[in-house]
From TrEMBL:
Its EC number is 2.4.-.-. GO terms for molecular function: glycosyltransferase activity. InterPro entries: Glyco_trans_4-like_N, Glycosyltransferase_grp1. Keywords: Glycosyltransferase, Transferase. It holds the Pfam family Glyco_trans_1_4. It is an enzyme of class 2 (transferase). This is Glycosyltransferase. The keyword Transmembrane does not apply.
Length: 377
């Protein structure tokens, strides 16, 4: 099968979506399929990679988005799709690329929209007060479901806004985590000594510094913990449009802004070395960074308003949107014995391997998990 995948909001420094695209693409390729990913960039290019062919098409920068670009030119993308002749189309942007569902239907191509975000959640964060958020989200979600053969959501929380509308072509398929790259044995005492003094609690926030990720809640949690006498410090991995504002908010607190870290090995070592990770984004629909922390043996405190309680289960804690609630959840985790809480985190992550995720997505595409070889029975 020729599987063509389209995605916006992907850049060299983006996190979860880029990780998911790469892991699924590599899995499709290993299963014997021909895979092409089309993403926006500053100029056109084509490269063969471990996740298949990656085609970059010119797309304008999104103002204030910290480097994200969009595929906006429809005619060149139509020509590209016609030249690629896909058997399956997978789209990871249900707003600006939703029109490709109609293209796929007109060309007899089975299509799938992967919903990586909660539209109602995002509108609730960013829309002006008088905007009818639920009605607008419902209208867009119904149009999305009508445009594609399948709508795939990665958690029950993410699927809820479609399920409430009675969407018949909805499937739920979880993502995965690299259980070899992220593991407890990546714990690095030398790295810990650079970030925290003996006896200090090392917290980690890993995520893009954009409004929906709520990194300010991690800073508020640190401030409250220190007010309570807990000698905590915070390492922030990630960059984005809110970095300067967050640095100002953290003034006077022991916060290390490490920026975007391209070295995945270093990210794995930091996550395995931290005592607790924080993932306070209230509209997270899966949370790969939180799952990577669990795989590293580090429990995670998440927003109770997001999908992440589904992911972390008993291996983490959940909090409301205030520093006091997050601080209390951190203290509750620290009260558990360290070997026990780290083992529980790893066990939870082991429920989410990438091989199972790849099989689930291929099943949603209605293609075999492994293509039969010519000449074999």
């Amino acid at each position: 099968m020729r599987i063509v995948r389209l995605a916006n909001f992907v850049s060299a420094s983006s996190g979860g979506l880029r990780t998911a695209l790469a892991a699924l693409g590599a899995g499709y390729l290993a299963a014997g399929h021909e895979v092409t990913l089309v993403v926006p960039g500053p100029a056109r290019s084509s490269e063969d990679t471990a996740q298949g062919r990656v085609v970059t098409v010119p797309g304008p920068l999104v103002p204030g988005a910290g480097g994200y670009r969009l595929i906006t030119a429809r005619r060149p993308l139509r020509r590209l799709l016609e030249g690629l002749e896909p058997d399956r189309l997978e789209v990871s942007d249900r707003t600006t690329l939703r029109w490709t569902g109609a293209w796929a239907r007109a060309h007899g191509v089975r299509s799938m929209m992967v919903s990586h975000e909660s539209l109602s959640g995002l509108l609730g964060l960013f829309a002006p007060p008088l905007v009818p958020v639920r009605r607008l989200a419902d209208r867009v979600n119904l149009a999305t479901a009508a445009a594609y053969d399948v709508v795939a959501c990665t958690t029950g929380w993410a699927a809820a806004e479609f399920r409430r509308l009675g969407v018949p072509n909805l499937v739920q398929v979880p993502l995965g985590v690299d259980l070899a790259a992220f593991a407890p044995d990546r714990h690095d005492p030398a790295l810990r000594a650079l970030l925290a003094r003996p006896g200090e609690v090392l917290l980690a926030h890993c995520g893009r510094l954009s409004p929906e990720k709520r990194a300010e809640d991690s800073i508020a949690a640190l401030a409250e913990l220190r007010r309570r006498g807990v000698p905590a410090v915070l390492a922030v991995l990630g960059d984005g449009p809110r970095r300067r504002a967050l640095e100002a908010r953290a003034s006077g607190l022991p916060v290390r802004f490490l920026g975007y870290v391209a070295d995945r090995g270093l990210v794995a070592r930091l996550l395995a070395t931290a005592d607790v990770a924080l993932a306070p984004g209230p509209v997270e629909t899966f949370g790969l960074a939180a799952l990577e922390a669990l795989a590293s043996g580090t429990p995670v405190v998440v927003s109770r308003h997001s999908a992440l309680p589904e992911i972390v289960g008993e291996a983490g804690g959940q909090a409301a949107r205030d520093g006091s609630s997050y601080a209390g959840a951190v203290q509750a985790l620290l009260a558990r014995d360290e070997p026990g809480r780290r083992a529980a985190a790893r066990r939870r992550a082991e429920l989410f391997g990438w091989p199972a995720a790849v099989q689930g997505f291929l099943h949603a595409h209605a293609v075999p998990a492994r293509e039969p070889r010519v000449g074999t029975p």
